[in-house]
Sequence to fold (225 residues):
Amino acid sequence: MIEENKRAKEDLLKEKKSQETLIASLKQDEGKFTKQIRAKQREANRIDKQIEALIKAAIAESNKSSTVKNTNTSSNTFALTEEAKVLAANFTSNKGKLPWPVENGVVIKRYGKQRHPQLPNVTTFNSGVEIATNSNTKARAIFAGEVMEIQQLKGANKAIYIQHGNYITVYNNLTNIQVKKGDKVTTKQELGSIYTHPATGKTVLKFLIYKNTNRMNPADWVYRM
Fold:
């Protein structure tokens, strides 16, 4: 019995050491994954700053050249013509009914602050929605408007900004652009191809909505998103 107890104790000690090694390995992996996630978040934040800087500059330029007086004291709002006010009102009245910016796709990352599913201590923030779709898919305008800008983002692909009165929709991660700045576009008009990453094979559109400089949740605007 003494010998059996000794063997049982040795087995328990071996099992404990094995568990400790496994836990240490998991913690090491967690640290590695956490660093990768935070690096991706910093990159996303950097791109968001580029987008927001462009929108602010576009508002300033628009208001500078506009014959319409901006009654709002803020420099972060568009001075709208009567035509632009009608367009913005139409955009607002279609809230929750707007078409998707792709013909087929699924949201893989939603708007706002989210806790990582495998790493509960890690949270991320998404300024829009990320939609996975098929390769060779075209992004399309969700509403009539005017191409405000086509931006080559540093360290990323191109983004198209479409103005709908004081609303702006942004379609990021595009190549083979089919429109140019100043073009009038219609609902569901194709804008360009969504880039397929050669290493991952994933085709993902980052889609954002702004009212002036304020971020909106696209899921509140697009039908069943």
